[in-house]
Specification:
Immunoglobulin-like; 3 domains; globular; glycoprotein; Cu-oxidase_2nd; oxidoreductase activity
Length: 544
């Protein structure tokens, strides 16, 4: 460990006790020390500059239990600013810790920052990733699992093993080259391949013991493409989606759209040999495919023949599967009461936001936007500007809550919303490619998906009983998706496409969920160790 890194670790420990007053004293703490470095990786057989965490690509898993406090000291040993965001972790009352540039100052090179997270009232499968520049194309991502507390019933027996499966499209080019390509106003080329847990074709394997059942936590951490996941001659029993226990439907393969996470149970019920694990791209020409190996411990032979085929460009197949994914109403979630005890379908919505994605040129360069606004970052994180009441950084209402029909223009788009309201978002996709949307700080009910233009009459099709609650949802080509959200989490929350080039070039915004209250029951104050930058430089957080 370097002297700088060791010194930062000691400094972090010196003030941690003063930070713990933020969270409930009775909940356990888990401590993590992460050193973020560059390193050579060869996932597709070509040397690349990867981003490693403690020397690992992908990064280490985070194992936790509902309500745990996670103290994650991140030392940035790169030569550029760095941030980690926590996809699906709701950061209750604490958007300061969200790890995107709209909420958190970047960690400068050679310095550290200690994230203080609580996985409050959450269970399930999620992941973390680097949120700045185009770092996500170099690694720096890993799995997050939140187990139920011991006395909370789980709707299936403990599996014999529990594995993280990170799948995603990948480029042979370094992230700096891809970023320069986008900065020049160009679209990204087609990816070079697909990775499974950081490995290319044939590079990854799981060991299963015959007759036993295993849990796979599958996340699509790629940059753009939806992927279909399947295992030769084995069924996938879906049990959890981004923190919601689902009806236990069995599938032969599963579409995992970019940014999404699923848990499936797989039983080793076939003859003892090796079987293909397959991930292939959806809705693309050509189709990208990669394989791994499911190895039975009593295997009598290696995989043979071609990998099993899967769906390719069929939208209806994927739409029907999406509609079949529903909440298990009788199962417990993070608390003992059944998930179905919250009757979202009986609550009147107070506002509807219709968000339409688009692509176009601004000043001769490729840009993407929402309701005609292509997002540009401000010189100061929006949450800090809001907290310190720094004027001129952003304007609430700088983006319309309905499509305007106009051409793309640049602005720092912030939508306003009131705390404790129950609202409807409609994602309208008039483009001929699939979209994937994520909302930080929340889980939402996916009440409807269909083709064509959304109208108020579309509500007749909504599932108001057992829609799945999740944080990332797809919108099919020339289609719409509708969600319901209870805005019970004060803060500044990133609403973005998970297509990373489109996010980088403007297809995102921030949702400011506001209350005039200054009570810590509604929102925590700024962390005492918060980094300050931009126009917030020189301001005070709170005395230690």
């Amino acid at each position: 460990m370097s002297l700088n890194f060791a010194g930062a670790a000691v400094s972090a420990l010196l003030f941690l006790t003063s930070l713990f007053s933020i969270v409930a004293a009775e909940d356990p703490y888990r401590f993590f020390e992460w050193n973020v470095t560059y390193g050579d990786i060869y996932p597709l057989g070509v040397r690349q500059k990867g981003i490693l965490i403690n020397g690992q690509f992908p990064g280490p898993d985070i194992h936790s239990v509902t309500n745990d406090n996670l103290i994650i000291n991140v030392f940035n040993s790169l030569d550029e600013p760095f941030l980690i965001s926590w996809n699906g972790i709701q950061q209750r009352r604490n958007s300061f810790e969200d790890g995107v540039y709209g909420t958190t100052c970047p960690i400068p090179p050679g310095r550290n920052f200690t994230y203080i997270l609580q996985v409050k009232d959450q269970i399930g499968s999620f992941y973390y990733f680097p949120s700045l520049a185009f770092h996500k194309a170099a690694g720096g991502f890993g799995g997050i699992r939140i187990l139920s507390r011991p006395r909370i019933p789980v709707p299936f027996p403990d599996p014999a093993g529990d594995y993280t499966v990170l799948i995603g499209d990948w480029y042979k080019s370094n992230h700096t080259s891809l970023k320069a390509h986008l900065d020049a106003g160009k679209k990204l080329p087609f990816p070079d391949g697909i990775l499974i847990n950081g490995r290319g074709p044939g590079g990854f394997s799981f060991n299963f013991e015959q007759g036993k059942t295993y849990r796979l936590r599958i996340s699509n951490v790629g940059l753009q493409h939806s992927l279909n996941f399947r295992i030769q001659n084995h069924k996938l029993k879906l049990v959890e989606v981004e923190g919601t226990h689902t009806l236990q439907t069995t599938y032969s393969s599963l579409d995992v759209h970019v940014g999404q996470s699923y848990s499936v149970l797989v039983t080793a019920d076939q003859p003892g040999q090796d079987y293909y694990i397959v991930a292939s791209s959806r809705f693309t020409t050509p189709i990208l495919t990669t394989t791994g190996t499911l190895h039975y411990t009593n295997s009598a032979g290696r995989v043979s023949g071609p990998p099993p085929g899967g769906p390719t460009i069929q939208v209806d197949w994927s739409l029907n599967q999406a509609r079949s994914i529903r909440t298990n109403l009788t199962a417990s979630g993070p608390r003992p009461n059944p998930q179905g005890s919250y009757h979202y379908g009986l609550i009147n919505t107070t506002k509807t936001y219709v968000l339409e994605n688009s692509a176009g040129q601004v000043n001769g360069k490729q840009r993407y936007g929402v309701n005609s606004v292509s997002f540009v970052p401000a010189d100061t994180p929006l949450k800090l500007a809001d907290y310190f009441k720094i004027g001129g950084v952003f304007r609430v209402g700088s983006i319309s809550d309905r499509p305007t029909g106009g051409g793309l223009y640049l602005d720092t788009s912030v939508l306003g919303a009131d705390y404790r309201t129950f609202v409807e978002f409609v994602f309208q996709n008039n483009e001929d490619i699939i979209q994937s949307w994520h909302l930080d700080g929340y889980s939402f009910f996916v009440v409807g998906l269909d083709g064509g233009q959304w109208t108020p009459a579309s509500r007749k099709e909504y599932n108001l009983r057992d829609a799945v609650s999740r944080c990332t949802v797809q919108v099919y080509p020339k289609s719409w998706t509708a969600i319901y959200v209870a805005l019970d989490n004060v803060g500044m929350w990133n609403l973005r496409t998970e297509f990373w080039a489109r996010q980088y070039l403007g297809q995102q915004l921030y949702l400011r969920v506001y209350t005039p209250s200054t009570s810590i029951r509604d929102e925590y104050p700024i962390p005492k160790n918060a980094l300050l930058c931009g126009r917030a430089t020189g301001r005070r957080t709170r005395p230690l």
